[in-house]
């Protein structure tokens, strides 16, 4: 679920709505959702992978949550196996109270080091991403399943994809990692006592300005450093800092 975006970096204060919103936790997906999506996809094995059934389940990742923006609507996300090695299909959908799919997004993604789907890989982020009157986005956050990097120069996690609904389709408008680390000295996941690590955590807020009908998005990157002082590169100031990045909507995606 990776995408490349050109960033406009601005180091000045911008008036924006707050980036922290109350958000309800994800709930376990009920059997009725699996049954409804199995019928929608025409798959008899659309249920979690486990060893106590004759048919091997295809679902490896799942998340479900009531969509508070619209009454009697459930937001769901699944990654499931269609028998292709190192590949999963991701389905994001809205279901009404009759368990009918009213809108969906579906795409295949490869797996590899740093991107592997598992039971706890998905989190649905339903903060108030109000992009325009009558348009509220939501985010799917992905965390790779399995061990982290060993002896790596960099690492990224918490991959966020922001979606909007257009009639019967759901489409992504922004994708990026929300956390990362860079080894400025030494390596990540291979402690030698000589590491100096740069870490970044990003948050999203909604600007009062807009482009092509959608509000601009402000991504605030809070950067900190950790490690032995003697291993700090001379050009690096140890103090934490923040960088604000503005994403503007081009009519299709945020760039």
Number of strands: 12
* Tally of helical segments: 1
- Provide the spatial order of strands within the biggest beta sheet: 1-12-11-10-9-8-7-6
Mean pLDDT value: 89
The main sheet comes to: 8 strands, antiparallel
Shape: flat
- Provide the β-strand percentage band: over 45%
N-to-C SSE series? Answer: EHEEEEEEEEEEE
Write the SSE topology.
Layout: E1 8-10, H1 31-41, E2 59-66, E3 74-80, E4 87-95, E5 101-110, E6 122-132, E7 135-142, E8 154-166, E9 169-185, E10 196-211, E11 214-227, E12 241-247
Antiparallel strand pairs: 1-12, 2-3, 3-4, 4-5, 6-7, 7-8, 8-9, 9-10, 10-11, 11-12
Structural write-up:
The chain has one domain (8-12, 23-247). The chain has one helix spanning 31-41; strands at residues 8-10, 59-66, 74-80, 87-95, 101-110, 122-132, 135-142, 154-166, 169-185, 196-211, 214-227, 241-247. The strands form 2 sheets. Strands 1-12-11-10-9-8-7-6 form an 8-stranded antiparallel sheet, with no helix packed on it. The two termini are 16 Å apart. Helices cover 4% and strands 48% of the residues. It is mainly beta and 255 residues long. The radius of gyration is 20 Å and the shape is flat. It has 1 helix and 12 strands; from the N terminus they run βαβββββββββββ. Strand 3 and strand 4 (87-95) form a beta hairpin.
């Amino acid at each position: 679920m990776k995408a490349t975006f050109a960033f406009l970096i601005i180091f000045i204060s911008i008036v924006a709505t707050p980036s922290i919103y109350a958000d309800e936790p994800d709930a376990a997906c009920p059997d009725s959702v699996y049954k409804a999506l199995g019928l929608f996809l025409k798959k008899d094995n659309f249920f979690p992978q486990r060893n106590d059934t004759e048919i091997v389940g295809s679902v490896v990742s799942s998340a479900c949550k009531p969509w508070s923006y619209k009454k009697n609507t459930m937001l769901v996300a699944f990654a499931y196996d269609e028998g292709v090695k190192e590949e999963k299909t991701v389905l994001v959908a809205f279901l009404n109270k009759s368990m009918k799919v009213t809108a969906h997004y579906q795409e295949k993604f490869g797996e590899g080091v740093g991107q592997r789907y598992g039971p706890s890989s998905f989190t649905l982020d339903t903060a108030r991403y109000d992009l325009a009157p009558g348009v509220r986005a939501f985010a799917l956050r992905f965390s790779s399943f399995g061990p982290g990097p060993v002896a790596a120069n960099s690492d990224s996690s918490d991959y966020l994809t922001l979606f909007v609904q257009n009639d019967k389709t759901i489409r992504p408008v922004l994708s990026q990692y929300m956390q990362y680390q860079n080894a400025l000295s030494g390596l990540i996941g291979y402690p030698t006592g000589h590491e100096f690590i740069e870490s970044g955590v990003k948050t999203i807020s909604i600007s009062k300005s807009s482009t092509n009908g959608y509000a601009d998005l402000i991504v605030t990157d809070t950067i900190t450093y950790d490690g032995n002082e003697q291993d700090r590169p001379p050009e690096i100031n140890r103090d934490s800092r923040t960088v604000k990045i503005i994403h503007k909507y081009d009519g299709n995606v945020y760039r």
